[in-house]
């Protein structure tokens, strides 16, 4: 969940690190810090707060040195304090580390280190890594061997980057179940938790595998396996560009990403037909089919299940990723697991995928981040092609998922060239015009404590998604549910003026949803209709264009995303960095 960037270069690195750190801040934003080595002196500046605040307060930009690393934290062990911010140095200041993950056995390791005389300055699990590697380094005087020997004692998950005070020419790293990527530049080399950290400097990347360790110099990379033997791997080129990772003229990444959707629904639809067919064939032949994901991706999974059930008559179980292990006994050879994830690093998803693979299940994934753990560990992969998503709340990745899911289901149904992407793109552009109306809704309801979202059938996951977006960004309590469920409890909460969004496209469920809207109105609710057809039951009406039924969630998502975004701004939240959340949840 934390963001890491490290760099060894032939020029001072503080500016490069800060720029990269801001781009990975979405991974966690409780605290920030940086360490550099200059003239054989290890300097660490850090504190609790957002990167820009710590930069200003501690003067990180003026730190000297051609080797350095920086970190942005999402707290797990130890509260949000200056001392608990990374980097953490060993007691002799010989070694400094930054870490993303959780060290499960840190208490026993800490006891052993304290007994040996090590002095601890923080409450974090991470600090044990610095002391462990310091011990190994004193013994071996070899940064890479010391790193490998140190991390071998850890249980849990880690991506660590390590600096050695007397070796300003090198930096090491190691990973297990948390991403660590080498950026191969000209006269500069990077270790980072995300390609975005160094995208302006190089697009050549090497993704480390679990249990590997790496040593970089300004122009060299040495990767070793857990046995210490050299591993040869050529860099891959990533398709993302620097402009993808900036806000352009938008106030926030989230708004930029919402507005990119007329383009990204098209790029998502450009897929290798052979790969789509292999994916579809795996589904057709599956002995049993499971779909798993977390958060917004889970809602895309629900949409996939719906079409597979209804149109392809294929039974599929959708299980929230963190719960998949509870159903493990059903994951058997011949089954297929479809995993959906924007980041491809969500710990819950990866745990489920590994459990399934261990049981001989074929894993087919739909993922945005090429080279991510999910992409590399799956048997079949389709990429979302929607560019990096920086805003913590998923927006364009959701609509891209719906597009790719539809391509797969169409292929399962034998429709190999479904088309419709350009038409969908125009409809999304049209849907975006509702922003003014959404702002009126925000003025009317920004002070309401609760919001409800209801829908029926294929749209039901959209009710969940609308509520999730609003909670994440505005901090307003929101619930989404099938409209049929209202009368089984939630109607008791409806009072005069309660806003209820009814997502209700023309189609087989339209009349029943209108009846639910009437029931809501009769109990005083302010009904907000999202539909291609107006009705007098709606107090407010957001028109979305009529599209093919399989694409309705794409156009309906737009006003729901804008509502959450505008509400966040009106309530003076930061929509890109909602409190307590992180985009890439790499801990369980
Ligand atoms: C986090 C994000 C959500 C996202 C979920 C799953 O909770 O804040 O926006 O939907 O993770 O992420 P994934 O990368 O697996 O799609």
Decide which structural class fits the backbone: alpha/beta
The CATH topology annotation of the largest domain reads as: Glutamine Phosphoribosylpyrophosphate, subunit 1, domain 1
What's the rounded overall pLDDT mean? 94
CATH architecture of the largest domain: 4-Layer Sandwich
Distance between the termini: 10 Å
Number of helices: 17
From the alpha carbons, calculate the radius of gyration and give it in angstroms: 25 Å
Ligand roster: 6-O-phosphono-alpha-D-glucopyranose
Query: Strand portion, in percent?
Result: 15-25%
CATH secondary-structure class of the largest domain: Alpha Beta
| DSSP, total strands | 25
Protein architecture, described:
- The protein is 34% helix and 23% strand.
- The protein contains 17 helices and 25 strands.
- Strand 13 (220-224) and strand 14 form a beta hairpin.
- The mean pLDDT is 94.
- It binds 6-O-phosphono-alpha-D-glucopyranose.
- The site of 6-O-phosphono-alpha-D-glucopyranose (G6P) has 15 residues, from helix 9.
